[in-house]
C-alpha cells in the first residue's frame, strides 16, 4: 500500500478510488463506505480467495468498528477470522505483513 486517504488508495503507483479488497489473486473495488453497509455478498472476493491467504485485515474507516453480526458469522463459517482495525492501522499492518512474506488479504474502507 503506497498511500491511503482522500477517498481512495494508491497501490503499486496506481490510484484507486473508494474502498478496496486486496487478495493474493488481485485488487477488487468494494462498494462500501461504512462498516454497517457491509453485506455477505459484498465479500465475495474474499470468500472466493479463501485458502490463498492466512491473515485477513479489515480497515473499518477512520475508527475501529466491527462487522455486522451476520457478516462476522458468515466469514467464520468460511474459515475466515478478520482482524478488525481502523483503516490507517490496517494499511500499516498490511505493508508489514507483506514485507515479512506473509499471505495476507485486506478489506479496506476508504477514508477522507
Rg, Cα atoms, Å: 13 Å
How many domains comprise the coordinates? 1
- Give me the count of strands: 8
Shape: globular
Query: Hey, roughly how much beta strand do the residues contain?
Result: 25-35%
Assembly status = single chain
- What's the average pLDDT? 97
Account of the protein in words:
The chain has one domain: MTH938-like (Hypothetical Protein Mth938, Chain: A). 24% of the residues lie in helices and 30% in strands. A five-stranded mixed beta sheet has the order 5-4-8-6-7, covered by helices on one side. It has helices at 44-48, 69-77, 87-99, and strands at residues 3-5, 8-11, 14-17, 19-23, 26-30, 55-59, 83-85, 104-108. The radius of gyration is 13 Å and the shape is globular. Strand 6 (55-59), helix 2 (69-77) and strand 7 form a beta-alpha-beta unit. By secondary structure, the protein is of the alpha/beta class. The chain contains three helices and eight strands, in the order βββββαβαβαβ. The longest helix is centred in the last third of the chain and has 13 residues, at 87-99.
What characteristics describe this protein?
112 residues; Hypothetical Protein Mth938, Chain: A; five-stranded mixed β-sheet; 3 helices; globular
SSE blueprint and pairings:
Blueprint (H helix, E strand, L loop, with lengths): L2 E3 L2 E4 L2 E4 L1 E5 L2 E5 L13 H5 L6 E5 L9 H9 L5 E3 L1 H13 L4 E5 L4
Parallel strand pairs: 6-7, 6-8
Antiparallel strand pairs: 1-2, 2-3, 4-5, 4-8
Amino acid at each position: 500500500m503506497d498511500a491511503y486517504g482522500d477517498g481512495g488508495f494508491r497501490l503499486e503507483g496506481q490510484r484507486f478510488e473508494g474502498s478496496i479488497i486486496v487478495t493474493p489473486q488481485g485488487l477488487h473495488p468494494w462498494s462500501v463506505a461504512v462498516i454497517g453497509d457491509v453485506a455477505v455478498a459484498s465479500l465475495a472476493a474474499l470468500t472466493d480467495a479463501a485458502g490463498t491467504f492466512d491473515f485477513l485485515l479489515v480497515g473499518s474507516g477512520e475508527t475501529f468498528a466491527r462487522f455486522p453480526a451476520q457478516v462476522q458469522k458468515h466469514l467464520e463459517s468460511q474459515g475466515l477470522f478478520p482482524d478488525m482495525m481502523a483503516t490507517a492501522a490496517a494499511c500499516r499492518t498490511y505493508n508489514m505483513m507483506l514485507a515479512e512474506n506473509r499471505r495476507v488479504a485486506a478489506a479496506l474502507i476508504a477514508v477522507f
